[in-house]
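Friendly challenge for the regulars: who can give me the structure tokens for this chain first? No prize, just bragging rights.
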Amino acid sequence: MTTATENAIEVRGLRAAYGDNVILQNIGFSVRRGEVFVILGGSGCGKSTLMKFMIGLYRPTAGEILIGGEDIARAEGADYLRILRRFGVMYQSGALFGSLTVRENVKLPLDVFTRLPEQAKQMIVLLKLRLVGLEQAIDKLPSELSGGMIKRAAIARAMALDPEILFLDEPSAGLDPVSSASLDDLINYLSASLGITFVVVTHELPSIYAIADRVIMLDKNTKTIIAEGPPERLRDQDQNPLVRQFFNRKPAAGTIP
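First reply, four minutes later:
Bragging rights claimed.
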């Protein structure tokens, strides 16, 4: 049985709404330390929205989001900033600053959150870029990078402060199959070598099978979790037809062939 100390993240009774418009409800799950945890579902089900609540960009109308045992949904001031230091985020577009080089983008969190000497910052930047296989692009601008390189640079920046958890929003979006598979390999390498906990939002089945230890599946209509577990088990054994359709790439009954 998983204990609280084994969980990097716990979400309890999360409800999110804008006025009378309910976005998510009755959301509860835990993410174990060191695992690759995937949030999946069809378009418009709230995958990326849930991640934004988990990283503290939005505040839920009810429930708790515990990061290392501390509720980011209720934290303020110094407590909130301390929780933020526990994780890094890679956004779907990469969100690199176009006027900064790769070196400067990765160094930015160190400039903002630390008082390290410049030499130490430069060493950390080089180490992070080596981890993602991008040290040769250290002085390039984002406009000079491929889509896969942008994602790798964004991951390096997300790791700059040595977080316990990395959140990745649609890491494979916009990538060709080879670049996507290479990014999956990187996620697996970082998970195995550094013990980082990953929370990944995606609907790409090849990536899900390649990286996920466990998944949760959100449903647009019920606005909650309809399945949880290893992806292969959900594909082969889950009795919910929506889950089986998703994992077996089958259209809903009655749709046009």
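DSSP finds nine helices and ten strands in the chain. The longest strand covers residues 7-18. Your move, everyone else.
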